[in-house]
Amino acid sequence: MNIEITSFPVAPLGCTCSILKDKITGETIVVDPGGEGPKIIALLEEKGCRVRYIIHTHAHFDHVLGTHDVANHCRSRNQTPDVRLHPGDQFLYKMLAKQCGWFGLPPAQPIEVMADMSDNEEFSFGGHKLTVLHTPGHTPGSCSFHLANEGILFSGDTLFAGGIGRTDLPGGDYSQIMTSIKERLLTLDEGTTVIPGHGDFTRIFEEKQLNPFL
Length: 214
Ligand SMILES: [Zn+2]
Ligand SMILES: [Zn+2]
Known about the structure:
By secondary structure, this protein is α/β, with parallel strands linked by helices.
C-alpha cells in the first residue's frame, strides 16, 4: 500500500494520534492530535507531510489538546487543513476548560473552530478515502474512521482491545455505544485492523471472540 500510517500515544492520557500520509503526493490526514503538538509537528515535518485534514474521533480534551498547535503550524507552511468534528460533540469542545478540571488539569480554552463532519462523509488524500462512521455512545458525536481499502479502522474511544468506551461522562449512553459497536463496527470485514483511541491495536474478529463487554 502506498499509505504510510504512524500511530503513537500522546500526553496527557496516552491518546493515540495517527498520521496517514499518501506516499506519492504527501497529502496527509491527522487523526486526534490529542496533545504534544510539538512532537506531532516534528513528525509531520520529518515526513514531508502536506496536511489536508485534521479530524477528531470525539471532543474529550485528551483528543483535541494538540489541534491548535498542529493547525497553526500547517498554516504557517501554507497548508490549509480542514479541521473537523462531529456536531454532536461541539458542546464538549465548548467546555474544554471544564473537561480539564474533571481530570485535575489546568484549564485549556477552545482554540480552534472546528467545522462539522457527518456520517458516511469521505475525506480524500492522494488516491485514498477515509470514511466517517458515526458511532455515538461514548459521546454523542463519537466517530470511527474507516480506511476500507486498507482494512483499517480508527475506533476512537468506542472500541478498545478487550474493552469499550466509558459512558458515564456527560452525553454518554450505554445502549447507544453497544448499538454503534454491533451495527457499525462488528459488521466490518473480520480481518480489519482496529487502531483504538488508547492502548493496543486489535482486529475485529478478536473482539468478536474475546471482548468480555460484547
Ligand atoms: Zn480518550
Ligand atoms: Zn473519550
